[in-house]
Amino acid sequence: MTGEPSEMFESMYASTEAGGARPPWDYGAARPQLVEWVEAQGLAGDGREALVVGCGYGADAELLQRLGFRTTAFDFAPTAIAVARRKHPDTEVTYLVADVLDLPREWQGRFDLVVESLTVQSMPPPQHALAARRIATLVAPHGTLLVLATTREDGSEVTGPPWPLTRAEVEAFADGDLVIRHLERIESGTWWRAELSRTGAVTGPA
Question: Is pTM beyond 0.85 here?
Answer without folding.
Answer: yes
